[in-house]
């Protein structure tokens, strides 16, 4: 068994253990993948300021997200088809998150259903909601989330149409996977994954099958999004969703200060600055570059989180010091889940916390709540001086 010391180690194992179709789904951005790449590489342009001979004893990474206590300011982001990366993947990731003390957000496009995850966990999780045309489906989804005692709803607003990811089309991505000569040949080399999948009944989009009308192929993400998603979504419609859900609300997928202000007007409790992990608008700025103008626009009207590109505790520290209240991770835990299941996700969270904690100490801080922009050296034009 290789010694795991960083998230990249999980990625190498993950690539070996999970069918290509699902590895590619996770590890893709849209079109040229410029935004996907820059989401991570832009973090390298921000430097941390080392301090010495400062008392570094007795440190804490504890914080809060939308008023909920967290062991560190990190959430597990909603990731479609997590239950194809590892059998019962959503349940296992949610369990790892609850034991560690960070929020888990279930995707609408999960394999395990809301009810499955609720039955198999003991703390409330968050429910991500896609904006579909079908009003009955939407009402029912919020009701199901309420029934399952979800402690926040997360409306993703950046996927009215699906950004094209070439590899998903070339691989014929579906859940469960269609049996073609290429997919069968590849799956034959992923014995552990296959045995796991045979041991569970959860192989379909659990929140959709039996709930959504008018979808001709519920196994295909692209067919499903093209047929069911609401291309005419606007802020009035989002206000209708706000009325369907009276709990804490997070709006995810904001990249522009004007949209951030709209989200404040809807009565959301937080926004996530996100370009969907570089999977939607290719050519958009990285989330970390988009963050500051949004913070400037909203002030303290709303809590601002960030996702896209975060692969380490150092990235979390930089995001936090730039002003984000919290950072969400997607791929960083999916690699670990695909590699080693629940144990992997737990270890990934430990690795990120250790990186965060040690780097914070080396910047001269003992409490994540007190970290501010002073620990950063950010290029003057980092957030852009765009014409
Ligand atoms: C769906 O959320 C996706 O990005 O694939």
Task: Kindly describe this structure.
- The protein is of the alpha/beta class and 387 residues long.
- The protein has one domain (7-370): TIM Barrel (Alpha-Beta Barrel), CATH 3.20.20.
- It contains 16 helices and twelve strands.
- The strands form three sheets. It has an eight-stranded parallel beta sheet with strand order 4-11-10-9-8-7-6-5. A two-stranded antiparallel ribbon has the order 1-12.
- Helix 13 links the parallel strand 8 (249-254) and strand 9.
- The protein is globular and about 60 Å long.
- 49% of the residues are buried.
- The mean pLDDT is 96.
- Glyoxylic acid binds next to loops.
Keywords:
binds glyoxylic acid; alpha/beta; two-stranded antiparallel ribbon; single chain; 16 helices; 11% strand
Describe the secondary-structure layout.
Blueprint: H1 7-17, H2 20-26, H3 34-41, E1 47-48, E2 63-65, E3 68-70, E4 74-76, H4 82-85, H5 89-100, E5 105-106, H6 114-119, E6 126-129, H7 135-147, E7 152-156, H8 166-171, H9 181-187, H10 191-198, H11 221-228, H12 235-244, E8 249-254, H13 257-266, E9 270-273, H14 287-298, E10 303-306, H15 313-322, E11 326-329, H16 331-362, E12 376-377
Parallel strand pairs: 4-11, 5-6, 6-7, 7-8, 8-9, 9-10, 10-11
Antiparallel strand pairs: 1-12, 2-3
Helix pairs in contact: 1-16, 5-16, 13-14, 15-16
Give a concise summary:
The chain is built from 16 helices and twelve strands. With 387 residues, the protein is of the alpha/beta class. The site of glyoxylic acid has 4 residues, from loops.
Strand order of the largest sheet: 4-11-10-9-8-7-6-5
User: Structural class of the helices, strands and pairings?
Assistant: alpha/beta
Q: How many β-strand runs?
A: 12
Give the second-level CATH assignment, the architecture: Alpha-Beta Barrel
- Count of alpha/pi helices: 16
* Overall 3D form: globular
Q: For the record, what CATH class applies?
A: Alpha Beta
Instruction: Give the biggest sheet.
Output: 8 strands, parallel
